[in-house]
Amino acid sequence: MSVAFTPWPAEFAERYRAKGYWTGDPLTDVVERHRGAEAEATAILCGERRFRYADVQRLSDRLAAAFQTRGLRAGDTALVQLPNRAEFYIVFFALLKCGVVPVNALNNHGAFELTAYARQIEPKLAVLAKGHPLVAADPAGAVAGSLTAGLDRLLLLGDPADDVIGSFAWGTGEALSAAPDAAPDHAVDASGVAFFQLSGGSTGTPKLIPRTHDDYLYSVRRSAELCRLDGGCRFLCALPAPHNFTLSSPGALGVFHAGGTVILAGDPGPATCFPLIERHRATWAALVPPMLSVWLEAAPGSAADLSSLEVVQVGGAKLSPAVAERVPERLGCRLQQVFGMAEGLVNYTRLDDDAWTVVNTQGRPMSPDDEVRILDPAGRPVSPGEVGELWTRGPYTFRGYYKAEQHNARVFDDEGFYCSGDLVAMAPGGNLVVCGRNKDQINRGGEKIDAQEVEDVLAGHPAVGHAAIVAMPDPLMGERSCAFVIAPPDTRPSELRRFLRGQGLADFKLPDRFVLVAELPKTAVGKIDKQTLRERVRHGLVDPIAQTEMTAP
Ligand code: AMP
Ligand code: DBH
């Protein structure tokens, strides 16, 4: 049994294998390759706990065997939501080793997002931390009922413990049992789906991205090589661990591949991260632009010794050149810009690029076989330097969202190129500059908000006639979200916010600002004219009858 996905056409698969991109190794190879003396090196630092490569191997083997004992089989799926703890990787590798395909939800996703993912994958297993709101709300097993009828195994992770396996318990309270030397019994097909990555989305329904062992392992290996990682790398993982950036660009998996150490941070703020950098002599960190700005403000007055930092990577949203310029002086290290997507294509500025390129561009594709087209609305290539829509295909760019035929028909062309919805221009040297976006999405400091998804939930409120959500420029976050809502003038924005929260929507998706309006502008064909709304927001104009309220940042 395996999970269905849209494969690459045979001639592409053959080429990617012939060129050595796809090796047929499972994604767990990033830890399995470290044997003998190498396996004694520190793979993960998590609070006061240290895990060698040998520990990660043994623990994920035992956990995988325990999953199999409980009846989980290759081709089953799992829904996982864990904080930045070593157990995240141990669970991830354990699932891969028995062919169970996970969705790793971000820790700030709510019941709304989890339910939407569960509906699509119909998981047999959910792995959550003890005290998770879904579990706390209904300990008697309603997680199964609220997520999906097919869920019959719930694994809960307790407090950090010396005995990692012992810190897990089944939802029934039964301890997880696994023999000390247990190992899974399953041969992995590397051309099949390893796990689902999450898309930021722009169509109302969260989309899942099937990533194969072959394609993801290539993206990890190539990223680690491009970033020149070696066993001395100590990577501070401060953004959510499952995010494509921190997982694979080169992220924790790239660091594992190179034999380095992943230092886990519970949050990306300087108060948490600076002491960790000093204590563990961290050499690399990955940040989104707003957090980089916070670090740049905090660094000069901080007593922490940040001198071990060699590279700070920034991605997820557009970094302004003015902020980028300050990195070497304030943090005493190099900057690398990373423009990636969970769908595949990742662009990096190179470590030896000139200062102009590093400050002003979002880098270039990592693979010689990444194909990029920048097209005008008529589908014609734009001239160099002109802005157009980014289309791409390549050895680690997917060929279709999971169970989304209609949407796939819209975002892929006949040749298998995927339209990312980003507006980019090609700078000298083949580097891309992100200039905007052609998708109905708000990028709130790297966190993507699907406008239609929030509009649909909002429309469920009895007082709301219609809602349209657009981006609102913000000096720190880049963008925040502004909801124009047709509702009676006495509607309280705080009530709308409470309603959205009550629907289990992730907090970062709650509109930062509500504007109540009598009607919404329409385009000539009668669609809501978001361009006009964006103009209104940009010029600080709101409808005369509008009621607005700002939320605290
Ligand atoms: P996701 O679909 O959630 O993986 O988000 C990928 C999207 O994030 C890209 O298509 C871009 O819109 C945006 N993005 C990622 N990195 C950057 C960057 N360095 N600069 C500008 N936008 C970025
Ligand atoms: O925003 C992203 O999705 C992203 C950013 C940087 C990404 O997927 C990546 C690097 O791989």
Topology readout:
Elements: H1 10-18, H2 29-32, E1 42-46, E2 49-52, H3 53-69, E3 77-81, H4 86-97, E4 101-104, H5 111-121, E5 125-129, H6 133-137, H7 142-147, E6 153-157, E7 168-170, E8 193-198, E9 208-212, H8 213-226, E10 234-237, H9 244-248, H10 251-258, E11 261-264, H11 270-280, E12 284-287, H12 289-298, E13 311-315, H13 321-324, H14 327-331, E14 334-341, E15 344-348, H15 355-360, E16 364-365, E17 371-375, E18 387-393, H16 405-411, E19 418-426, E20 432-437, E21 441-444, E22 447-450, H17 451-458, E23 466-474, E24 478-486, H18 493-502, E25 513-517, H19 530-538, E26 548-550
Parallel strand pairs: 1-11, 3-4, 3-5, 5-6, 10-11, 10-12, 12-13, 13-14, 24-25
Antiparallel strand pairs: 1-2, 6-7, 8-9, 14-15, 15-16, 17-18, 18-19, 19-20, 21-22, 23-24, 25-26
Helix pairs in contact: 3-4, 8-10
Bound molecules: adenosine monophosphate and 2,3-dihydroxy-benzoic acid.
2,3-dihydroxy-benzoic acid binds at residues 244-245, 248-249, 315-316, 338, 340-342, 346.
Describe the structure.
Helix 3 (53-69) packs across helix 4 and helix 8 crosses helix 10 (251-258). The protein is globular. A hairpin with a 2-residue loop joins strand 1 (42-46) and strand 2 (49-52). It has 553 residues and is of the alpha/beta class. The longest helix is centred in the N-terminal third of the chain and has 17 residues, at 53-69. The strands form 6 sheets. It has a 9-stranded mixed beta sheet with strand order 2-1-11-10-12-13-14-15-16, with helices on both faces. A 5-stranded mixed beta sheet has the order 4-3-5-6-7, with helices on both faces. Strands 17-18-19-20 form a 4-stranded antiparallel beta sheet, with no helix packed on it. The chain has 19 helices and 26 strands. It has 3 domains: 26-35 and 48-189, Rossmann fold; 218-439, ANL, N-terminal domain (Rossmann fold), CATH 3.40.50.12780; 441-551, 2-Layer Sandwich (GMP Synthetase, Chain A, domain 3). The termini are far apart. Helices cover 29% and strands 24% of the residues. Residues 549-553 have low confidence and may be disordered. The site of adenosine monophosphate has 20 residues, from strand 14, strand 19 and strand 20.
